[in-house]
Write a structure and sequence with these properties.
The protein has 477 residues and is mostly beta strands. Helices cover 2% and strands 52% of the residues. The protein has one helix and 40 strands.
């Protein structure tokens, strides 16, 4: 059975709608290891092997062999690939110059095992430039997220978007939530109910500080802290919850609700969280997880779906994402304030934005950009985010008019929005809610909402930031 984890007192967790990583091209290497558990190796075309650890670079032509371990790698176009134990994944031909200019390509071979991937820019403008091959069939993309299990046959499950599975007998297009089965290279792919299931990784103690083994989420009676931003499919009801981040300060977001919350982790992923707004109990439970990434200080992940129960009714949720971490100690926050410290933060992890117009979900497929500045002496946070959605890009800035918006390790803000594309006349606003994490506020995590009449409805997302000189980032989903 998976172990359940509870958050120690003072852990901050923020849930939102939608997650990924900033893109950066690399002249020589195709990908970088986000994490590697066990004896994971890279095999060169000449047969030489080397061990892979977090941060290791992988070149085109190399094969990743997980052995009894597992790995997650991030490609320079923003794609991420999670590899299960006993998997061999070869990078046949990968090229990306830092932008989609027609020269990009990503051709891979799954030699055995199982993988889950969120695709990047390669293949977005020209689908022929992306392909994953097996001896049974090849997989081309029409969307962003899918999983494959491969032995003598393959199962392919699409999480979001679509993929095309082809062999000598024909092709099958799989849309969101559908699974295809291919028994051999001469039999046409068919739909099946048996999904491509990839076992989650075991929890690594210390991977994200502050998680301890336990049988429940609130046995010590201390709130873990969670801010949630969600959407109930089909009802138009926004959950804009607010947690007690540091055990003492209540914050509200968007709808003004205040929730004291408790979170449960299983296999290092958020499994559920409970909340109480003073009169009613709420329970939010994970459906299909995409996974969780961490840089060792902040962690973030995404649910494709989920369910909720409150004091009156229950229902379903879609595209719920979160950021979690240990809030910066009060003593460190006081020292930063007394030292009149101003710090700059770069975006190091984020969610792909998700929008809901009351009837249709739109999922962003391009990376967001942004930055954040904290003036601890004046207790103010300012920043900006540029959020692509569909054919438009929505840019928001916030400074709260220079008024203090940091209290303890928490911060909030409200901002104006400009847009490009068909929605250039959008008269919209934005809200953000966040917290500082790690020693000396080394990280910052936030959730955001852009509202007020975009072409796609309200837009939600989450983002993680790293302080200049505060160490490397993690990844995204």
């Amino acid at each position: 059975m998976p172990r359940e984890f509870k958050l120690k007192p003072g852990v901050a967790l923020m849930a939102a709608l939608s997650a990924a990583y900033p893109l950066s091209g690399h002249a020589a290497n195709a990908a970088r290891v986000d994490f590697a558990l066990g004896d994971v190796k890279a095999l060169g075309p000449d047969g030489r092997s080397r061990s892979l650890a977090k941060g290791a670079e992988i070149a085109s032509g190399e094969t990743i062999d997980t052995g009894s371990g597992r790995a997650q790698v991030r490609f320079s176009d923003g794609a991420q690939v999670s590899l299960a134990p006993q998997t061999q994944f070869r990078i046949d031909d990968y090229q990306f110059s830092g932008k989609a200019d027609g020269s990009e390509k990503g051709f891979f071979s799954l030699l055995r095992g199982a993988m889950r991937t969120i695709t990047g820019l390669v293949g977005r403008s020209n689908r022929d430039n992306y392909k994953v091959s097996t001896t049974v069939a090849t997989i081309g993309i029409r969307g962003t997220e899918y999983s494959v299990t491969y032995g003598n046959s393959i199962n392919v499950t699409t999480g979001e978007g679509g993929v095309e599975v082809c062999n000598a007998a024909g092709c099958l297009i799989l849309n969101s939530g559908e699974t295809g089965y291919v028994p051999d290279s001469n039999t046409r792919p068919v739909l099946t109910d048996k999904k491509a299931e990839i076992p989650p990784p075991p929890v690594q103690e210390g991977q994200l500080p502050g998680f301890v083994a336990g049988n429940d989420t609130s046995g010590d009676g201390t709130p873990s802290g969670l801010a949630s931003l969600g959407l109930i499919s089909g009802s138009g009801y926004s959950i804009a919850g607010v947690g007690v981040f540091d055990g003492s300060s209540d914050w509200y977001m968007f709808d003004g609700a205040v929730h004291t919350t408790y979170a449960t982790f299983s296999n290092n992923e958020l499994a559920k969280f409970a909340a109480n707004d003073g009169s009613d109990d709420y329970l939010y439970t994970r459906g299909t997880p995409v996974g969780m990434l961490t840089d060792g200080i902040l962690g973030w992940g995404r649910w494709i779906d989920g369910t909720y129960i409150d004091g009156y009714e229950g229902g379903s949720m879609q595209h719920v994402h979160y950021v979690v971490g240990m809030p910066t100690p009060v003593s460190d926050m006081n020292a930063l304030q007394l030292g009149n410290v101003t710090a700059s933060y770069a975006l190091s992890g984020y969610t792909y934005p998700t929008a809901w117009d009351g009837s249709t979900f739109t999922i962003g497929t391009q990376p967001i950009t942004g930055s954040l500045t904290a003036n601890f002496g004046t207790s103010t946070v300012s920043g900006n985010l540029s959020v692509p959605m569909g054919a438009n890009t929505y840019s928001t800035t916030w400074d709260n008019g220079g008024s203090p918006n940091i209290a303890g390790s928490n911060f909030f803000g409200y901002g104006s929005v400009t847009s490009t594309g068909s929605d250039c006349s959008c008269s919209c606003g934005s809200s953000i809610l966040g917290f500082f994490a790690g020693a000396n506020a080394a990280r910052a995590g936030l959730v955001y909402k852009i509202y007020g009449g975009t072409d796609y409805g309200d837009i939600h997302g989450a983002a993680a930031f790293t302080k200049a000189g505060g160490g490397g980032g993690g990844g995204g989903l």
